Amino acid sequence: MRGECRRTADVGSATVSGEWPVELLEHVAGCEACQGTRAVIGFLAPLADEARRVPVPAAGIVFLRAQALLRLRRESEALEEARRPLQVAGAAAGATALSGLVIGGGWLAGRPPLGQLPGTSVVLTTLLLTAALLVARWWGADEG
Fold it and tell me: Are 95 and 138 in contact (CB under 8 A)?
């Protein structure tokens, strides 16, 4: 017989219990559906026994762990959000220090640092470069 069989439930019970009546064994020998049932349940039954041995934590513990993980995730996101202005401030400090070194080094050497530009143009150029670096750093902080 192929497809469904009225004896598959009996075969399932016998496979799990290990008690096989002779007439059921004879039936399974000639029935493809029951042979398949026996093979599948024979494979799954030991897995179910193993699963029963694993202790399942109480629902309250699972809930508390989930709440703790959610809190950690929120705190991590808040720290990341708070870190961005500090990154921008660090970039601004670095750009300002670099600008100061360029301008100061040129004046100490006795020549304008950026060619023959007057002092006001040098300061304006330095400020524009600093602003460009800040904007680039701020956009890069979102990707990071």
Answer: no
